[in-house]
């Protein structure tokens, strides 16, 4: 890269954010102290086990859970799969229906289809499930499990998990809360029976996930032959330890980092709304502090991501991930908003006002260029 | 640790070895270059994808496979589960029997039970499956998959995979070769249709595994909703990259490191055989270069591991892993040898002759002390 070129701005920090500096340091320490198998009896194994237990304890403290209620998995997708499968199986006597929000992650929707009979609760145009409708669905007989995300990682909208948890508890149905887009960015309420969270989303490593289950939730394992059904074969202790250290670091700064990014998102929402033929989606107020999504008419999402990348800005898109997932976002479809020409911004804690202003200066001409290439004249 | 104390000697390097120095360097590089999601379209994502593809290419070169035949998984156990499940499903029309060796890993045995009908081929007292019996079992109608490890990680015995692969191929049955204890330590023959290997065993990280499938093996995925059925949600690119760099490093030195450790194992086998009431197990010749196992009469394995740990030596044991797996080793049981009082040694490339001599000096009195504590007088 030439020294005269402005530095790249990475605005795609949802799900896979750059490493928090303290997570990197923690990883290096754990490479030395935690390389051994924590299931072994010797000193090296016991040292690795202590690091792993310490990591569980740190995550539990943030969640308001007990250490033994927190496990590490092989990633967020694995945690969601396991939570749905085991949560549904644990209540099999109560029925096989699994009630989910329409904007849950694909991993939850597919696991629910595989583990039982899925009942999907619709969301409104802001992406929010109606608490009353969700509570009613959970309260009917035959429900094994309910799943509602704390906040949606694509559009930022926060869901009414507290009210839904009250209803689920009254019905004796465990509630899985996917906090994969929120833990590390916003306070996560304690109103869950199962909870999954994603270290890679808060500046920790990919390749490890968090799954918590309240002691009152009875989860069947896969039998004595598999001492770690949450993560067959075990997890990387250095990754787990780095995850916990990153979480402690971002929690210490949660309010300030949230307020800073909330203002930047407000600025982006206001400025983008001025671009012709755009729809800014998601709840403008009850939302994650760092996520904002908008869709342009007459624009191909993949082309726009590529054009912005050429200009030095990395952004996400609900309709441009990889060749194999180039289908329209089911989240945007469920909200009834534009599903193409989509840009998803997830701000890092380090994103500055100057970064945002540079992006906002580059965005309208980039949209214009993509429209021109498609033969659509700007207004 | 006091400076006057001799350094600890780690002799439990099977399955979770200390990091190879080059793997550590590679990890640090990949933390900078490979933190992004390799499925993303922007520059950071493409850079991570290049690192991941490079890692697949490097592993493929060692295996004599094509890059697209090699995938990373969430660990060795996950690779074995996936290989058995997908391998059996891919041939479902051909039958549902899965032929396995008696000393395969628990992950293979349990996955075979879950995916079909398991037929287990016995091993002899050295731990070797009879090639003729295995070939006959594979050749009968109704077999979906066969699984035979290249070498056993507990006792070191090498299996006749070449001959079995000839028979499997003639019968049109895919052969899964578990190279989890051998890749990085010995030449792995190219006679496989599916192969699983374990980076943590060769000085790479835990939390990532290798699964290779020949192009002629048709493996069903889990559908378009899951672009990476091998590793739902994806793997850690830094861990995958570090795995590949470690493998290249140990392959460059394979013959020398093998010869050095083979001699040390010969020395251990000879010396341990002189301890009263001991059985040294596994094939003394056709074996892994670095693994040796022996069992003592009148000794509790966990107590002996703990006593040796106190003396500064970390060893493994087939009967002392964690509280949840304190059952006798199914490998030793299948061989018809002593299943208790077991010590498993897996030498590191860096293990020196002096380390081994110190261990051999400490072992007999340690055995004696454990026997005395149990009320058994030494001979």
UniProtKB/TrEMBL annotation, chains A, B:
Residues 11-359 form the Aminotransferase class V domain. The keyword Iron applies. Keywords: Iron, Iron-sulfur, Metal-binding, Pyridoxal phosphate, Transferase. It catalyses: (sulfur carrier)-H + L-cysteine = (sulfur carrier)-SH + L-alanine. Transmembrane segments: none annotated. It holds the Pfam family Aminotran_5. InterPro entries: Aminotrans_V_dom, Cysteine_dSase, PyrdxlP-dep_Trfase, PyrdxlP-dep_Trfase_major, PyrdxlP-dep_Trfase_small. One of its GO terms (molecular function) is metal ion binding. It comes from the Bacteria. The keyword Metal-binding applies. Its cofactor is pyridoxal 5'-phosphate. PANTHER family: CYSTEINE DESULFURASE, CYSTEINE DESULFURYLASE FAMILY MEMBER. Belongs to the class-V pyridoxal-phosphate-dependent aminotransferase family. NifS/IscS subfamily. This is Cysteine desulfurase. It comes from Myceligenerans xiligouense. The lineage of its organism: Bacteria, Bacillati, Actinomycetota, Actinomycetes, Micrococcales.
